[in-house]
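[retry 2/3] non-specific serine/threonine protein kinase: previous attempt timed out, resubmitting with same input.
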Amino acid sequence: MKTSNQYCVCHQLSYNWIKRSLPDIGLTGHLSGDIGSLSELEILDLSYNRGLTGSLPQEIGNLKKLLKLVLVGCGFTGRIPDEIGFLEQLVFLSLNSNNFVGPIPPSIGNLSNLTWLDLADNQLDGSIPVSSGTTSGLDMLQKTLHFHLGKNRLSGEIPPKLFSSKMTLIHVIFYSNKLVGSIPETLGLVKSLTLVRFENNSLNGYVPQTLSNLTNVTDLLLSNNKLQGALPNLTGMNSLKYLDLSNNSFDKSDFPLWLSNLKNLTTLQMESVDLNGNIPVNLFSLAYLQNVVLNNNNLGGTLDIGTNNRKHLKLVNLKSNSIQDFEQQNDLPENITIILESNPICTETGAMERSYCKKHNILDTEPQNKCPPDSCSRDQILSPKCICGYPITGTLTFRAPSYFEWRDTTSLEKHLLQEFQSHDLPVDSVSLIISDPFHSFVYTIQIFPRGQDRFDRQDKSTISSILGNLSATSPYDFITGNQGPKESTNSSSKVLIIRVAVGGSSVMLVLLVLAGVYAFCQKRRAERAISRSNPFGNWDPNKSNCGTPQLKAARQFSFKEIKKYTNNFSQDNDIGSGGYGKVYRGTLPSGQVVAIKRAQRESKQGGLEFKAEIELLSRVHHKNLVSLVGFCFEREEQMLVYEFVPNGTLKDALTGESGIVLSWSRRLKVALGAARGLAYLHEHADPPIIHRDIKSNNILLNENYTAKVSDFGLSKSILDDEKDYVSTQVKGTMGYLDPDYYTSQKLTEKSDVYSFGVLILELITARKPIERGKYIVKVVRSTIDKTKDLYGLHKIIDPAICSGSTLEGFEKFVDLAMECVEDSGADRPAMSDVVKEIEDMLQSVGMHLTSESVTSTTSSHRYQEVSIVSFHLDQPYSNESFGSSAEHIQKLNLVS
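[retry 2/3] non-specific serine/threonine protein kinase: success.
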């Protein structure tokens, strides 16, 4: 029996360590019900301790303050307790890769703050629970971004009630279950979705046409089901990159022409779906197309892949079709694999000598080396450089195919090697081998030592930490296999660590634990000091999609590059200036024209602040926001590189300086675009952003006169204590400034709404916000007479919109402007309501609306599925246990 003093020591140690996480340290046994006594616990991470077995105790429901519960890759069995629904503060629940059985507890629907739900890779059965009059269900999780329920034994239909327009889901992953019935039409209501995986079930019926509403989905996998009827027309899904409809029971049909309209498509898989006719050549003109897999159909005629996409196209697999001829058979680029085996073209005399008629095994991608055979001892492995050693081996399993270019492993191998070498690790080479890219997305990885035949304990631990924190290719899971030779270890240290979790008390244990914590803290202090001195030290300027943090669609430029792109900042390239500094036009080697904003001295920030702003701007993507292309932080220079918007500012258009004439309908659409961009900043950016300087000079018009909001992050970012909103230090512009600001000295999202109201009045009148000392808001307010035509505003309406067109919706537009410029912020609408008002207004007068919404983005994922690393140690390193950092889990909400 423990003394009370011993119990307190154990309790305190367990609390501190568990809060920092205890992943993969070799814990064994059962999780005691005593865990429920840790009432202050906020984070519990016991992931990848495969020796942790037995059921999850129902006392887990006593941890009322728990925010994150991470039990990935343990050996838990039994049912998930209903009491898990008591954890009302929980935002992250990850129970995947265990052996849980039974139904999904409906009580999970009570977790109203949950953003991440991962129950994949268990043995859960029964139906997907939805709420009823007496029970909760998953349909109640309106804040949840991820539904990961794949690789279970779930049965029954996907309930139509599961999905609604109020949800914020981005990932729905239900693959490899026993689900039947139709895909619910309500799925099309969840406009935020980016990934849908329903493959390997028994779904039947028609594919609902409502899927075309999912304009943000990049990956749609419906293969290996029993879907029927006509092939779905998915024209509206213009963000699709990866489409797999293979092995279903669709009606016989010609090749669907709408596929050629999917401008972002990289991989098309439609095996065994009874396709007929010819493949249009313009399919192969899609700019990003890489893989076309259409085997086992009845496609015929002449295959013509054209000449427009020789750079990206890698595979065209038409095995077992009816192709008669091949247009490019004498002019086939070496980088493209064409497979026409079992087609009529390959039955001609001598055809088997042609490369496209030979048998192919596209999964056999293990690198062929020229090393001498049998040059290593029995248990060693040859590296790609013909050096014998004991590599760390394991598997990478990708959650979605478009996150990794499946046939080109070279870029990831190179990136991993550079990452390891940047940490001075003795890594000689990295080898990735595809296992089954079309179905499991599984890759074998081998990491070989340099200058020695094995890694020592410290090197292995560091490698594990790096793999655990990489985000360049996430989401994936990494599970190690063979880890190299056994080393002589003292097993007592492992036993002592286990006792930390189960309650042993020893003076030596306490000293060991405290020493470990001290060393960890010292290391973190040193890392923070290095980070402060060189905040961009771990960003490789030559790579745009790696390092920490991950920049989305943005890269770092050197000062030398910027000088070259701007002709040494020549006067000819100087296109203006603003509060941040001068703006230069630049041309990148790709031909893309960019706008480069060069900070003047008084606009410059500290390195860490500038870095934080880059991270924020790089993950804010929307059609109606000016996109960040990159940045430069060098030689005391701070520069932001944006997309170039050719038609200038709205102000220039309204004043006639740009020569652009804005019709009434075009002005309404400009207002809608600007409102959508602003609403995205307020409600869908993470964290939300208050612009604080909305004005016609900060609304740009592209070549199609689409409005793009600019300058929403060009000053020091600060955190609003009340709303946790990031806002800039710019205090607005006279005439647009919220009247509340003069008393509160604070700008809020309703301040942006006020400025937007002024912007509407500018669109109507083409007058400046303050003209000859008169405020446009006061002028309109004093002139309005709702009993008269056009509210009696004839004299102040811009003459350019009065001639030749009726001003349909004018009165509603004026009403909306006046709501936005109410003196009190509480009386103004939210920007999302403004968007809806303008959309309704346009529809009521019969104007065409595009399908974009506030949440439409050019970015695939607001939250990335970060990589989670497991180390299940087999021979010959099986006596060792080294932990992977769980910082990536704790940082989840910072990843966008």
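[retry 2/3] non-specific serine/threonine protein kinase: The chain is about 20% helix and 20% strand.
[retry 2/3] clearing retry counter.
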